[in-house]
Write a structure and sequence with these properties.
Largest sheet: none
Low-confidence stretches: none
Strand content: under 5%
Number of strands: 0
Length: about 110
């Protein structure tokens, strides 16, 4: 009788082990997929950020040239208007990028 109880307990223990391993594997899969999606999304954002940073570098170079020149006339006013518009768009992008990075960091904590 004792032997039979030991066998039943061993079988139940094995079943519990298999169920727990299967559950862990199944629950880990969505997290991996989520992390992969977060990484892919971050790569896209980083590529976009690189483009914006390159463009900002060009505008900053132009600004240095204009800072050495006489800032009078329509050429400067037109350039300044475009520069300010770019700066506004760049700042808007950076706000969105920073918001994404907060979400990304939360995603990577999983």
């Amino acid at each position: 009788m004792l032997k039979r109880i030991k066998n039943i307990l061993a079988v139940l223990l094995a079943i519990c082990f298999v169920v727990s391993v299967t559950t862990a594997a199944v629950s880990a899969a969505p997290v991996s997929e989520t992390v992969k999606k977060c990484i892919n999304e971050k790569n896209k954002w980083d590529q976009e950020k690189t483009k914006w940073d390159n463009e900002k570098s060009k505008w900053d170079g132009q600004k240095k040239v204009w800072d050495k020149k006489d800032k009078k006339g329509n050429d400067y006013k037109n350039w300044l208007k475009k520069y300010n518009e770019f700066t506004k768009n760049h700042n808007d992008f950076m706000k969105k990028y920073n918001d994404f990075m907060k979400k990304y960091n939360e995603c990577m904590k999983r």
